[in-house]
Amino acid sequence: MLPKVSLQNQPLKLVDTFKAEVKLPSTRFFSLYVCGITPYDATHLGHAATYLAYDLINRYLTLSHTNIHYTQNITDVDDPLLERANRDDLDWRDLASSQIDLFVEDMSSLRVLPPNDFVKVTDSIELVISFIARLKEKDCVYQVGADLYFDVKPSLVELSISEEEAISIFAQRGGDPDRIGKRDPLDPLLWLGNKAGEPGWDSPFGFGRPGWHVECTAIALEYLDRESIDFVIDLQGGGEDLIFPHHFMSAALIKAVTSRNYSKFYVHTGMMGYQGQKMSKSKGNLVFVSKLLKDGVDPMVIRWALMIDHYQSYREWSSDLLLRATTEVALIRQALSKSEVYPVAGHISELIAVLSNNLDTPRALSIILKWAQQSLDGENSHLLVNESGEMSRTLDALLGLAL
């Protein structure tokens, strides 16, 4: 349960990836689907920054009395996981299980609220098989060797980039545009016929495993679709690197099966960088949450640091950023430890206003810092009141900061 905080009838406004600013409804059921991890490595700060952003959305909507249903998948069978398990001579299931446990621990330490559904792909194989069967009924599936592909051509009119650029990105992000036998370079894989030594499942299409995009669509449709509106979910989230091909393909698959739109809103997070480049395994510039925690870094300092810049901007992690967050969190804690502090009502109203405006955490943190400085300023001693508990509860509920 979140501490009770009145949001003063301020609805949450977000900047949608495709529609500019949108105002989220605050009085009805709201469904949120965020693409989860592939558990072949520890949680890095790029993951943490993304899930923290949707945690803030989850908190704000919950405090506004919205019945929010949040689903997140886990891609616990995929090429990177199998390659890592093979490299390290591990059972792929044991590797996935250990990394899922570590992810949950990391998110808990950072006080990221768990989703309502945390769904493994390996527990959803029948959902995927059923979804592919529905696609086959629509005559938009074809076979190349032992593999099944989706005919995406009718959806390419919705592309916001050129097909040439799309093919380039597709190749970089798990696609196989050069596969001989495909009808279109951008057609995504639905079902991968089994390769020797790899896991697989029986299906009407042969022994094998699902493709990437169809997993998320099958899970979202099962857990979140209300079937009474013209879109399946309210909000699709994830890092901006998922805009294409993943979320584009997900929308195309849903439209083919249901003749409805996939998501009413799309809200993506910016990338996290380190040493001048986007964090990625291939570049070897990952900073892991678990390593920071093991080194004694306060999880609330990590959380604060990840909110210093806006969630939709490119952000750089650095030792200077960590030092700044450490100093600022110490200042807030010093103020909260006082029995009497500067009056909080005005600051809390400002805090709610800036967070309601597309989660403007940089301004939110500056408001909190201003309040702390006013509370510690000796010249304000005659104004101080016994309200530190109210500020503490507000920071906990809105920002997940247990200080």
Automatic annotation (TrEMBL):
Pfam families listed in its UniProt record: tRNA-synt_1e
Q: Name one GO biological process term.
A: cysteinyl-tRNA aminoacylation
Keyword Nucleotide-binding present in the record's keywords: the answer is yes
- tRNA synthetases class I catalytic domain mapped to chain residues: 30-325
Q: Name one GO molecular function term.
A: ATP binding
One GO cellular component term of this record is: cytosol
Q: Does the keyword ATP-binding apply?
A: yes
Database matches in PANTHER family: CYSTEINE--TRNA LIGASE, CYTOPLASMIC, CYSTEINYL-TRNA SYNTHETASE
| Name of the featured protein | Unannotated protein
